[in-house]
């Protein structure tokens, strides 16, 4: 979730992050497991964003393979203002595997909403990143296990 330039570049100095994300994506493709990319998106010229916020101006989205799906949202949770729930239901997906930036943002909000919706959850701890390593550690060791599985 949110694997777009501006979000990844801000909290991370780990330049290998995207190459690490590609491993489970490749494994999912090999097992015919759907891959859904979640990004935050705004209208052209960003009318939803304050004019002084240049953060989003140069963001580039990930390139998707033909069998991958992109879902855009405007709120913090991946379900917020998106069609993810309809897509999940129509594809018969019962369990969501999550990775993304930032752990205390989109990952946390999506984990909680997924739990509220009574869907299965697996968080890929090593593929979630946050600018605050302590927040990342606490969420993965104490917060997320209440909602579902956490794996490295």
From TrEMBL:
Keyword annotations from UniProtKB, A to Z: Hydrolase
Single GO MF annotation: hydrolase activity
Top-level taxonomic group: Eukaryota
Annotated InterPro entries: Isochorismatase-like_dom (IPR000868), Isochorismatase-like_hydrls (IPR050272), Isochorismatase-like_sf (IPR036380)
Pfam families associated with the record: Isochorismatase (PF00857)
Alphabetical list of SUPFAM superfamilies matching this protein: Isochorismatase-like hydrolases
Domain Isochorismatase-like intervals: 13-137
Record-stated family: Belongs to the isochorismatase family.
Protein name: Isochorismatase hydrolase
